[in-house]
Design goal:
- By secondary structure, the protein is an alpha+beta fold.
Length: 1043
Amino acid sequence: MEINNPREPKTNALVRFAVHRPVTMSMAVVGVIVLGALSLSRLPLEFLPQFSSNNISVVALYPASSPQEIERLIVRPLEDSLGTINGIDTLSASASSGRGSVSVSFLAGTDMEMAAVDVRDRVDRVRHLLPDDIEQIQIRRFQSSDIPVINFDLSARWSRERLFEFAESVVRRRLERLEGVAQVDVRGLRTPEVQINLDPARLRAHRIDLRQLNSALRDNNVNLSAGEIREGSRKLLVRAMGEFTTPEQIRALPLGTMGLRLGDVAEVAYTFPRQDNFNFLNGIESLTVAVNKNSTANILSVVDAIKQELKSIAALDAAEGLDIRVFRDASTDVRKGLGQLRDAGLIGGLLSICAVFFFLRRIRTTLLVALAIPISVVTTFVLIYFMRAAGLSDITLNVISLAGLMLALGMLVDNSIVVIESIFRHRNELQEEAATAALRGASEVALPIIASTATTMCVFMPLIFLSTGGRFKLYLENIALMICVVIVASLVVALTVVPMVAALILRGQQARPSRFFASMSRAYGRTLDLTLRHRLIFVAAIVAMFIGSLHLLSNIERAYSSRSLEREIIVKVDTPKQYSMEQIEALYDEVYRILDGQREALDIADITHAYDRGTGRSRAGYRRARQFNIYLKDEDESSVTTLEARNRIRQLMPVKAGVSLRLASGRGHYGTTGIEIELAGDEASVLALMSRQVADRLAQLPMIRDVDTSLESGDLEVRVVVQRERTLAAGLSSRAVASTVTNALSSRAVSHFKTDDREVDLIMQYREEDRETLDQLKNVPVFGAGAPLPLGALADFTFAEGPRSIERENHQMRVKVTAQATDARASYGAMAAVESIMSELPMPPGYSWSFGRWNRYMRQDQDSGFYALLFALPLVYMVLAALFESFTQPFTIMFSVPFALIGVALVMHLTGQPWETMTIIGLIVLLGIVVNNAIVLIDHINHLRTLGYSRDEAIRLGGQHRLRPILITAITTVLGMTPMVAPFLFPQWFGPVEGRAATWAPIGLVIIGGLTTSTFLTLLIIPTIYSLIDDASQFARRVVRNA
């Protein structure tokens, strides 16, 4: 049909300004490039996005105390007080030897600043109920800056004392002076203390009461502010000084009036305490150092400065023989992300340019794409910087946002390609002048590319309404914001820079049609005519394909696991409590030799292990961990996967009676396949029985292994039961007896001693050889009204085994049963099997079970993802309805979504990819971009119909006109994501599928699969459905008119 007087098309104001004011636009582009360079240099580089948890923890350290004592004296008062705060989700508590903690988890949306004030207020209210000699109470809220940016070990063939002193006075102090360093934590470090080792025989001979001696030390070691005085016009502060300044002064402390000194009854020494915790790196005893950076510091600059400083320290004469070994470096992930972004940009950009040239066969036009890519990227950095400056966002460049930028690179040129192709068609096929072709061609597609950008952005709006935080929201927020910024930048470039440059570079180019594409267009037109003649048959075939894809999707495994970016294997070691230190050392040496012998076979980079004595005091800051940490080489340097290495190590572990060796992978949360069950109730004995029953049942499941419980038998306790009648008869109280025992045995500090550079604990207790046996304990003298009595005359002694730790949640005791799924892809099935077993287990009244917090978070993440996906569908429809001013045409476009599911089902089935958090994120991103092709197609068909073409002619011509941009944008998007998914698809070329490849590839796989099928089906089925819906609309209108 020939149209003689087509209506003069309207032009877009932004495009018109860009084409008519090329000098102004050129200066704007130069300005953006300059601002982009400045913005990129000032954007903070992080390992992970900035975040703060909804948890606030209160930690109290009380050395030389049993878990039961910690629970009674510290945990329960704090628990009762903190439990009155509003907005609490869960209240959990833990009591272990020397340490008590209460963690308050608040509901989403709680003002955490006010919550922190409430927590501090509740702690202050009960401070008088807690022991007076608590060393410190810490209130913590976990933030992203609490994750160390670098971990390294210090080892040397030196004495322990020399290593401790060097780590404290040289390494820590020099690193803390570096700009950007917030904290340096040396784990395994023992600080010196003043030990007053009492001789009980001399104390007894001189009738010295331990309680009075304790008071004498405290009362004679003071430094107090005493007020102020005025002398004339001067105000003078008064301070009472009476503290010890040297160990000699402590030895010279008078005891009584007979000239007796403390040194006569005790040995006073400034020394290191006995070592109870041992850390090793590659078989050599070491200290582990963790360094945190300030929240605003650049991770690359900080880590580089730390490494340079470590080189300077290693070059010192005093450091001869010192070995510094970095085994975890967060900047490596950031550098890899930047490198992969660079490679993806170069490879994806080059492939996109080649695809454009293949379809357009014009060098000048292709150069427009090459120009649009860097300008869009630079504009992205400018927008991000100004969003941060305006307080609209706190996004940083981190491994998550960089992954979003990698995803967006595939969509970076979509808008420009649609504009370029439209300009190209006006110039080469409609024979228009260059400036006219640029103006009309860009204006013609302005609305559809704006609509495409809007639909891509709107799919992320449900994030605002997600009530749960967690990993899903954190990841998707960063990915979504980066994608939205990139496509907005590309939209601006497509409507300004592209038409402006096109009007200039196409001016001298002779218009000539492409024979290659003309033949492709004619073939597509014939195919389209065929589908329009047999609409119902063709639609039925597509529906059958969709039903088949739903069947495939229903059979795909669902995984609740999270992927770890680290190649780390943990071997946890439990030994019988009767094991001596010699047996523990022999066991660890044997396991280490086995692992050390597998370095080359398993590509092991470093092996660290730690153990403790398992008895005696547990000093502040230590956790009694017994485990090996095996760090594998990076996947780029290895051919062994973490799973293969873990399975091999499991086979190599020695089997010994009473010894448990359990394996996990990844950092925390029981690795990537962990399952955790929490049992809650009031009686520890009932929970212990239930946990053994659950563990026995889980061990019978074929998809479960490494079953364990959190019930660890503690140390054997000697309980001194004071007999009240005997005590009162001797003129004593139970407190006096207990205080005497504490003063004789406890390692708790009675006071503090200040040196030139530090404050250390002052410890008073019997000599070690005088506190080894029960008989020695029974002979401890207790002073009353008359002659001193032995402790054995005032108390009875019983033996009992206490728990190693006590866990509580919401005022109930809690026991955990943990296990590993045999495969990450089987984790959902394993959890379903566990849930079935637990539902059949009879629970006593008042007792309950639930999956552990990490498993609950993973389930919430996936539920949030499906919720966001379902909520995004109507949002896309509403945006399309508003843009097209139609209720029916958005339905036509929305059919692209089920077409995409066909490709998603095929690619997930072929690659064995399960449903997990990352695939859901991929689906959400896919939903935003899969409708873009249909938008471009339907908008042009509507445009042609307004010009007077019949419906079928408009459909055929619209399809032919939009065939090329649809194919180019789909191909460039797929090619742009190729660098992300290639390592996942071809591990034989790229190494083990782990780390970033395993984490982000599922997103790219879903998008590539869905976009591929949707593109081809959009070109064939969308025109058919458009005609069917148009017929239905016309029929409905006739019915309404005739009604």
